[in-house]
Amino acid sequence: MENLGALSLVLAFCLTIYSILGSLVGKWKKNPFLTLSAERAVYCVWFLVAGAVGILVYSLIGGDFRMAYVAEHSNRAMPPYYKFASWWGGQAGSLLLWTFLLASYSAVVVFQNRRKFRDMMPYVVSILMTVEGFFLLLITFIVSPFLVLMQGKGIIDVGDGQGLNPLLQYWTMLIHPPVLYLGYVGFTVPFAFAIASLITKQPGDDWIYTTRRWAIVTWFFQSAGIILGAGWAYAVLGWGGYWGWDPVENASLLPWLTSTAFLHSVMMQEKKGMMKIWNMVLVAATFFLCIFGTTLTRTGLVASVHAFAQSQIGGYFFGFLGIGIAGTTYLILDRLEYLKTEARLESVVSRESSFLFNNLILLASCFAILWGTLFPVISEKLTGEKISVDGPFFNKVNIPIGLFLLFLTGVGPLVAWRRSSAESLKKAFIAPTAGAAILIAVLVAFGIRHPYALMSFGLCLFVAISVLTEFYKGAQAISIKDGKNLLAAAVELTHRNTRRYGGYVVHLAIVMMFIGFTGSAFNKDATQQVAPGDTVHIAGYDLKLLKLVDSDNENYVGRKAIIEVSTNGKVLQTMEPEHRFYKASKQPTSEVAIRRRLTEDLYINFAGMSDGDAKGVIQAYVFPLVSCIWIGFWILFAGTVICLVPSKVRLQYARTEVIGIAKKPHAASQIHN
Amino acid sequence: MQRRKFITSALGLGAAAIAAAQEPDPVSLVSPEIRRVGTKLACRCGVCNNTVADCAMLECSYCLPARRKIAEMQKAGQSDEFIVASFVKESGVSALSQPPTEGFSLLSWVMPFVAIAIGLIAILFWIKRYQRQPAGALPEIDPAMLNRYRDRIEKDMAKNE
User: Model pTM?
Assistant: First the structure.
């Protein structure tokens, strides 16, 4: 079986080379049959990679412990779904997942565009297959998942494996890596189209229109992957931290920030033909940051709890990044003539400017995170001094940047395209600003003094009012005209321009998430040793340890603390945090118990025993508003889906351009209005 | 009874009890006084990116001895600054939870804001450049063309209604 898997990968690698050469030579020699054959090779690559995946998964689930990968990442006691998840639990398997997803995306791209973009497609295919070929090279020749265990010259079966890391045996880990990879890998498609449009010197914005949905979908997958990872950390690690500024977490955020900037600035190109170079740079930056992210995870460049075991693949990744960045930079510089802006910016106080500032802040945040992540390496190389750059640094630098970004999220809808008069600005800003000021005053009156928390809550309301006013004004106009109720009119409004109003819904999701992040300023915790019958008091809750219950199964031994939760003498529920020890990997874990409510979560970790096994150590936390983060995710999902629904009215993005000056000034102003 | 013993030892819970007999127990080391100093020190266990104050692993290989040291030094009447300086003397500036604001490390704090400033200047320069474009460079529109645009606007508006 393992030979068949390895053979599939070798054949797939050969076919990627054929596909690259066939596309380029077919284009060069104007041979459509060769080009078509190269495109069909993409489907074959998918079949071969899917075959290899099938063989690996079959070996994992079937327990073929002759295979090194199976022995290292699976064991007999694990439930089948975790055996399946072992596919991406290690270096080679996760690279195979990446390869499989890119092969799938490539096949979809080729099928979708089989009759479109005939000029660009050979280059699109060759770029997709170059990236695919790079990953196939790694899993075929450097870190194969199909290695077998050898003793002397004989293959051995070790009987059972070490199992998946217990921390990864949690339901979000079944979907977090694939979803994050769908986002990471997916941005290869917009990148391929962008580069193909540069190579073919496309004068228009075809690549933008073609890849718009890809960009939105992959952006959503990146967002979902990040949030799922945060949800996993919150529920599994035992202290309720959903974001730890770990280098690998940071690496996942970097392409998200640049792709978010791209989704905003691309509107400038669609609407006004501006920022073409910038959009190219953003697409390329997002793609290379995705590769950089996976490089960080796999090369040991920075120390991270998420990193895979170090291997020899670092040099390959840096080589690929170096060549890719150099080639892309050359292409952009060489094609500047085709990327000239078609319109001019008329005022600093305009929607266009707000997009520019939004891009600046997103990129600044990206730079700050990248800089902080790499600074220990830079410092050690240049000065020989090791430095820790941890959470406190990232919070100090990124919180002000994040708050300014939140402010811009609210400002955007209030400012008109082209220019805004002082009068219209005053009118637009008055309600959101007044709302924010009143909220801050009320919070201060209730004793809240945390400056960032006050600013954040105020800005959240500022953005919410600004966005909801947009919905209200539009819906009211439709309601008056068509006689619909406001809700129906709001639905109609959204349907008329799904990207705009879907985008606003996403902004509301970001507001919800910021409310959740801000709640962390008011976290409370208590750590106490308790014997059965003792009580821990925290934030109005009384947590009474009733008893300890032991368990034992094939996978782990465990002990549960049965805790009665009450407030003011009223029993609310019983919670059962557990401490486990996994037999195969010999690792302890904590299974926390969480009472989730909209206003706050009660989070209990059973940390172990003390005092000669007589007392349990209970760590209790109260996390105010943390649920808003997860609710925000579902709103973000809804907003993204709305963005993907085709708009009812298709002319809203007709490009604005200044074509000249009218002979009579009043005629010109009529057009502008 | 034997099963319980196995579970207790497998869960590694006996070790804490033995340690507790000789040293201050881990739970007593999460006091606000120790945390106050701990916020300035990085947890260097390699598992989390927390500070000595925030690290939730009571038996953390780095934080537990660090907390014990803080407790002892506080008991001896040492100031917070002196305690932090002793950690730096022992392990270098990597003991700190954030880079110091001096020497080469100052760059870590300054660079993000320098980047914002450069970006801001670039945007303002770009805006000014486009605003400086002389209006005279634009051609005068033929009235017939103007009328065609008006018709198109009316048609588009009609579709929206």
Answer: 0.86
